[in-house]
Amino acid sequence: MNGGKRLPYYLAALLILALAPAYLSSYELSLLGRFLALSILSLGLVLAWGRGGILSLGQGVFFGLGGYALAMHLKLERLGAGEIPDFMEWSGLTSLPWWWAPFRSSAVALLAVVLVPPAFAGGLAYLVFRRRVGGVYFALLTQALALAFSTLLISQQKFTGGFNGLTDFNELFGFALGDPKVQLVLYWITLAFLASAFFFSDWLLGTHFGKLLCAIRDGENRVRFLGYDTAPCKAAIFALAGLFAGVAGALFTLHAGVISPAMVGVVPSIEMVVWVAVGGRESLLGAVIGTLAVNMGKDWISSATPELWLFVMGALFVMVVTILPRGIGGLLEPLLQPETVRYYLKIGRYGLVRWLGLARREIEAGQTGSAMKQEQVEQNA
Amino acid sequence: MSEYALLLGQLFNGISVASILLLAALGLALSFGLMGVINMSHGEMLMLGGYLSFLTLRFAPARAAFALAFVAAFFGAGVFGALLEVTLIRRLYGRPLDTLLATWGVSLALQQAARSIFGPIGVEVTAPKWLAGSITVKGGALGGLNFPFVRLFIIGLAVAVLVVMWAIITRTRLGLCVRAVHQDRDMAEALGVRTRLVDLVMFSLGTAIAGLAGAALALIAPVTPTVGQSYIVYAFMVVILGGLGRLLGTLLAAVLVGLFSASVQIFTSVSFADVLLLTFVIAFIQLRPRGIMVVRTRALEEA
After folding, report:
1. Pick from A163, B56, B93, B152: CA 20 to 30 A from residue A212's CA?
2. Do B278 and A140 touch (CB under 8 A)?
3. Do A237 and A371 reside in the same domain of the chain?
């Protein structure tokens, strides 16, 4: 990718987002913060699906793993030695399960956020791609994974909070989450994560590895004939997508104050694919725009007429795939090429000059015309 | 109830689940093997069949209603499938992942449509009287075992459909064309087979069978907007396990998944059964990545 040439546009967009607290209300800002967190996940989908050709219908699982890992820590942060979270008490547990205990430490929780999702994603992808199983199979398997994960979360109520998930958080590292100042800092932290993920992805797509992924997507067997082992490459990019999803899940949990099975199941996972499909699967900037646009649209439509949303989402899928396979990004990217911009500027300048020239001539012609008329009038008289 | 009876009972449950899975997965496996396309709205064909059978039973004359319900489900879903193929799937030929997304969109819209029309709570279909009873084993080692007629009927239906499909594929001209297109699409086309027509017919037949499955399912459980979604993921697992383009593979895989779920549920809860099934499928493709039955070719598959 020619990230260097487009840097000015990226930086301009970043500046607009960074200054958002100045011109948005606190409610709008908290929504934008959530959506920016989700955009990190979308970047992962661009890498794995747009570039690597690996469609995941279970991205919600990795999102959920990150979100739950942090939420478990948030539930334990204020508790004393023998105490257990409220929902466990209601379910009749008397002591903390052994696998909850390490999450008392914030370091463990943060490590879990950045290690568990990519390890799980990479492991799964390696196991499947090692045996050269096709992309459609992988998509179906990830969907089954999303189903299994969400049913497991719902059924194990005493360990996971069940259908309601984990909520009612107070503070993180001693900062009260309800404090507006903390919310503001959280917004900027989210933006910083998004920007780092964005620039890292942009860099990665331009490397040898990025080109190799493209080659694997377009002709995996040919890449094999050239001597590459494709399975580890695909596993690596899918692990990275898992990492992005996990981080997105953790940040989203902080913004929304809740993580529940309703955000990790089959339908939410496929919704994540819609964001990227609408935004443009091959464009990082498009994916972010798509995520923001679709989520704002969802927020707007579901508050007006909730039934309409599934129809809209269904229609979006069909339309994007048939009419606009490259999404918004496919429309935007050529416009943002420096050559194109220069070309349009040139056309614009030429057109302007021409237009002005013509106009001047017309004015002159008009003047002569009216002068002639006047002469005629005088002659007739 | 003795241990044997319990085990046998679960075995029967497994076969009964397998027969519905088989009906749901047949169409998926056929069109995936033939066209390389997965129809994510296939589950909604089950739903469509269920609602059509509900409507028929409500409005048709009582005497013939039961048979009519199955006919309506079969043809209703089949016609819908044909429409879907012509308007959408044909346009996305050679882009399997995009087809998957587009048909998922259709599936969401259909689910929401069903929710708007029939409400989020399911509608009940009452089976006719002659299906209401059951065979119960009295006394002996298998005492207490219960075989409901409805479930036996569904197993019989699945076997009948399987036999008919087998006959079509091995004994008719259409079947010959299907096998030819499956083995080598370009060659078949060069020899005058109208491959797009074969695609259309098989796709529509697959959705029609799913409609039948939906009508059968309506006899044992209420029809809800999400009934398709709850079965379809297992049907996908059947397709993955079964391998492409062989009826026997799909049959074996359906029985395997049905029995696996039923036997796992003896030891653990339903939610863990899902996790174990997925683990089982992933472990299985480590051993046989192309499924139980493989059509051997020398082609280098990109799918």
Report:
1. B93
2. no
3. no
Mean pLDDT over all residues of chain A? 83
| pLDDT single digits (tens) B243-293 | 776 788 888 899 888 888 888 877 777 778 888 888 888 888 888 877 777
Q: What is the rounded distance in angstroms from the CA atom of residue A39 to the CA atom of residue A33?
A: 10
User: What is the predicted ipTM?
Assistant: 0.85
Considering the domain architecture, whether residues A357 and A234 belong to the same structural domain is answered as: no
pLDDT at A3: 47
Q: For residue A284, give the nearest of A55, A61, A119, A48 by alpha carbon.
A: A48
Q: Minimal Cα–Cα distance from B289 to chain A, Å?
A: 6
Q: Are strands A166-167 and A171-172 parallel, antiparallel or unpaired?
A: unpaired
Residue that terminates a domain, selected from A246, A263, A280:
A263
Query: Do the beta carbons of residue B75 and residue B55 sit within 8 Å?
Result: no
Main-chain phi, psi angles of A283, to 5 degrees: -120, 125
Task: Report residue B1's pLDDT band, with 50, 70 and 90 as the boundaries.
Answer: low
Dihedral-angle region of residue B140 (phi above 0 means left; psi in -120 to 50 means alpha; beta otherwise): left
DSSP string, B246-290: -HHHHHHHHHHHHHHHHHHHHHS-HHHHHHHHHHHHHHHHHH-TT
Contact list in B for residue A266 (CB cut-off 8 A) is 229, 233
pLDDT tens digit string along B134-164? 777 776 666 667 788 888 889 999 999 999 9
**Which element (helix H / strand E) includes B301?**
none
Mark which residues 175-204 of A lie under 8 Å from B by CB: none
Please check whether residues A204 and A110 belong to one and the same domain: yes
Chain A / chain B CB contacts < 8 angstroms: 130
Q: Which of A310, A280, A306 lies closest to A293, judged by CA?
A: A280
pLDDT-derived band at A201 (thresholds 50, 70, 90) equals very high
| Domain ranges, residue A358 | 337-381
At residue B303 the predicted structure's pLDDT band, cuts being 50, 70 and 90, is very low
- How many angstroms away from the CA of A255 is the closest CA of chain B? 28
A112 and A204 together in one domain: yes
